[in-house]
Amino acid sequence: MIDLSILINNLDTYLEGFKNTVLSSIIALIGSFILGVIIAIFRISPLKPLNWIGTAYVEFIRNIPLLIITFFFFIGLPALGLTLSGFVAGTIALAIYTASFIAEAIRAGIQSVPKGQMEAARSSGLTYLQTMTKIILPQAIKIVIPPIGNQFINLVKNSSILGIVAGLDLMYFGDIVSSTTFVTFDVYIFVALFYLVLTIPLSLGVGYLEKRLARNH
Amino acid sequence: MDFAGALSGDHLKFLFNGFMVTLYIAFISIVLSFIIGIIIGTLRYAKIPVISKVLALIVETIRNLPLLLIIFFTYFALPEIGIKMSITAAAITALTVFESAMLSEIVRSGLNSIDKGQIEAARSSGLTYIQTLSKIVMPQALRRMVPPIVSQFISLLKDTSLAVIIALPELMHNAQIIYAQNINYVIPIFILVSVMYFIVNYGLSLIARRLESRQA
Amino acid sequence: MFMSKSKKIAGMVLLSATLLLSACGGDGSKETSGTGGKNALEQIKEKDKIVFGVKHDTRLFGLKNPSTGEVEGFDIDISKEIAKEILGDESKVEFKEVTSKTRIPLLNNGDIDAIVATMTISEERKKEVDFSDVYFDAGQSLLVKKGSAIKGIEDLKKGTKVLAVKGSTSAVNIREKAPDTTVLEFENYTEAFTALKSGQGDALTTDDSILYGMADQDSNYELVGGTFTEEPYGIAVKKGNAELVDAINDALKKLKENGKYDEIHSKWIKTN
Q1: CA B111 to chain centroid
Q2: C65, C74 in Cβ contact below 8 A?
Q3: C-alpha distances in angstroms, C93 versus A47, C41, C42, C74, C272?
């Protein structure tokens, strides 16, 4: 039913796209994690201006489509004098978008640790930073791992947005293969399988962590 | 940057028309995927032999694929095997397929979160399994599911923008037509379109928060 | 062996999932149009309306004017004249938006009766649709920013970025004629031209007819190097509709004889 020769004859093209999807996902994953942690710290910070920036970031970015953010970096920034390739623009947009969800997950995790612990630690002489890194964060991490894992799965799926801005990813090369083979169905079944190769193991991993962490509680 | 030119009355009207299409498509998909999500989630929860397993396989496959791919596939690939749809129907179908899978997971974990002891108690008091599910378990679970369901709806509304690849005349599509006329329109249009999405989605998220705090 | 089998299974799962859920979606009822044994021309005459698939993003050929909501261009005027010839009245015409990628699916769905959308007659496409006689002679060319070092196709070297539209013949052609250059493909001309203006590429390639529209819109851009392919445009109808093709060809012939065609041509296409 499915014509395997399409995969075999265009394997280089598929792999090129797969490589870029993986690369973009890994870069955006690291970027969104770092940015997400910073924004989460802003949001729970006792300093009002930082708090305000963190909240504005999360509320605004979470409520607009990734596509707009991507287009902003791809064709909006050049109007302001900075030109980025589709791959770079898409990857930055992915990191910025995902960071808002990660920040929210981390904030929820930290705030789920009882407030009394913070007070107790502070009164026993630890600084705010020490309390955070030694007492609060280790507990919060267990709670935030599953939702962050889910965000990473979403990130891999969302990386398909690169295809719209000629970001040379799997979606993009799927189009190239189907315009040379004049076949769409079979071509995209293979594209789908390449995505599943990435996302299914991630999903299983997150599911496993979720179960294990739940048992420890 | 040309704010005055970009945000002329005609352009605003054109964007508004696009936003109506966005809301219309999102609304229909939300209703359909809510119904399908509840059915699939419940069937999986009930652990009916074979059916639950098959559904699990389908749901997991869909949940792990990019929505962009599903939209593309529905419109461009399905005609090759004889399933043909208009742009609107394809957009609604693809969004419904994807969101039903996501919602069914929310429903299933909502049902799982209800204490099993209640089921046993209800059963031993003479209720059938179906009665227990519909009268005891589902009402409680639905209340717990409201916040994640609302955030899923926000995602759906944002995701409607992906139908731009099949030329659905929604907000992003109309925005593209406007800023194609003049590169100086790009940033003003992006700002306005972002604000339009933001207002509706932020409004929805406030409702979700309100419901959440009322439960607590 | 294991690989191929598991792929087939995964493919089938994906397919059946889509089928199952789309069936649940309960949509698409309006697409089931019974042909009832009548040919396409008879059906058009019966419903007293002809639906043309046209571009909405292509200046001079088919462009939706955001101010008026009307679609305007060469393809639109030709469509109206054909409707007049076939149904006696140009108001019996309806336009639906198509892109290079959506036009053939829409035609085969029965959403549109014919494609008048800057569509090049090619052997590959003839396998999928039937074409009328040529109604416009275009050729592929390059659009660059004025003052660009690119003066023609011979200047497309390694590292040069050329922008094109997915699913178009021009993307395939440029890869053949300038194999060292990087080709980046976009969903539609709107995006491709915006990308060029944003400095995402050094040149944009497609039919000169479309590029003239872009240069007309933004005088910072110009065509260079003349044409390097022949792109005869045809009107496409669903395969096996000889009567409709004949009726369209008769209409085109008449338009060329009575001067209407030249009138429309010079209204839109201003060659320098």
Answers
A1: 20
A2: no
A3: 64, 14, 16, 15, 32
Give me the residue spans of the domains in chain C. 40-137+233-268, 140-224
| CB spacing of A72 vs B190 below 8 angstroms | yes
Residue C134 pLDDT greater than 90, yes or no: yes
- Write out the two tokens for C231: 């792109």
Closest chain B residue by Cα to residue C199: B183
Amino acid letter for position A194: F
Bridge partners of C137?
C232
What the block records as the tokens of C12 is 């089938």
The dihedral sign for the CA sequence A94, A100, A104, A107: positive
Strand partners, C141: C206
CA distance A156 to A40: 22
Q: pLDDT digit string (tens) for B170-202?
A: 999 999 988 887 888 999 999 999 999 999 999
Interface confidence (ipTM) of the complex = 0.91
Architecture of domain A16-170: Orthogonal Bundle (1.10)
Is 3.20.20.120 the CATH classification of the domain at C140-224?
no
**pLDDT tens-place string over residues C149-203:** 999 999 998 889 999 988 777 888 898 999 999 999 998 888 899 899 988 999 9
Cβ-contact C232, C121 below 8 angstroms:
yes
Residues of chain A with pLDDT under 50: none
Q: Confidence band (pLDDT; 50, 70, 90) for C7?
A: very low
Give the domain C40-137+233-268 fold: D-Maltodextrin-Binding Protein; domain 2 (3.40.190)
From B176, which residue of chain C is nearest by alpha-carbon distance?
Answer: C190
Q: Which chains touch C (3 or more CB pairs under 8 A)?
A: A, B
